[in-house]
Amino acid sequence: MSAPPLSAIDPRVTQLVNELIGRVADKWTMLILEALTEGGTMRFSALGRAVPGISQKMLTQTLRQMERDGLLTRTVHPVIPPRVDYHLTDLGLGLAEAFCGVWQWAETHLGRIETARRDFDART
Amino acid sequence: MSAPPLSAIDPRVTQLVNELIGRVADKWTMLILEALTEGGTMRFSALGRAVPGISQKMLTQTLRQMERDGLLTRTVHPVIPPRVDYHLTDLGLGLAEAFCGVWQWAETHLGRIETARRDFDART
DNA sequence: ATTTATACTTACCTTTTGGAAAGTGCCCCC
DNA sequence: GGGGGCACTTTCCAAAAGGTAAGTATAAAT
Predict the structure, then answer these.
(1) Domain containing residue B79: CATH number
(2) How far A51 CA sits from the closest chain B CA (Å)?
(3) A24 lies in a domain?
(4) pLDDT tens, residue by residue, A36-93
(5) Is B75 on the interface with A (CB under 8 A)?
(6) Which domain holds residue A44?
């Protein structure tokens, strides 16, 4: 499917913003964002514990992406065994705040969605 | 990775909300949400045109999910050739509003993220 | 000397996602 | 009676996501 879109308000910004949101709004990023919002500064292993179900691979990968996007800082302490601290930048905190709205929406309307699903499933 | 999470504020609501957000916050859902917010009532083909790059398969699939979740209504007019209208429910509109914050955040901070990325890539 | 702890990295492999394209149903129009 | 339009549905297949598990580095502790 192609052809020109409906509105001409945004030229290529829309494209970029969508890409950005897609990158930023995935499952693990949101969960890490939440953990760091609550936990302040956390080390790798603590994050692993705070985000149930995440694998080491995805934890590392997601943290790196977030660091790259400037959402958090990564501080390596030159000690052994290694210790690495993560904490949100103001950019990351801002994103967490913005997501707060979605979070709250989800929390308050969870019930309605569940019944909507049941109705739909019964109907079909 | 497993073990108990950091905070005990939310029992299993967190789980449900996360699942819900993951379902609701994907690329196509957001784009369709946006199209319908701007376009009001739209038919299948119009949505296909309004969301550039989506395939018929994903359009149908995403619309069905959204209908199931109660985010939009699907009205089949018994005419030939077929005509099906989609439009957001108040639930869907609420979600669109909630996402508005994220959208705006992304729009305003796009520049900062891009420079953060360049810095990171240069650093490594 | 071996074990332990931490924060990764890498290789392999399964599962999921999603695109392309062809098929379906149905009536109107020429 | 052949073609066209719309809204799907289905099948096949390639690409990407992501899990598991093993490996790496280092120094302190036993």
Answers:
(1) 1.10.10.10
(2) 7
(3) yes
(4) 999 999 999 999 999 989 999 999 999 999 999 999 999 999 999 999 999 999 999 9
(5) no
(6) 13-123
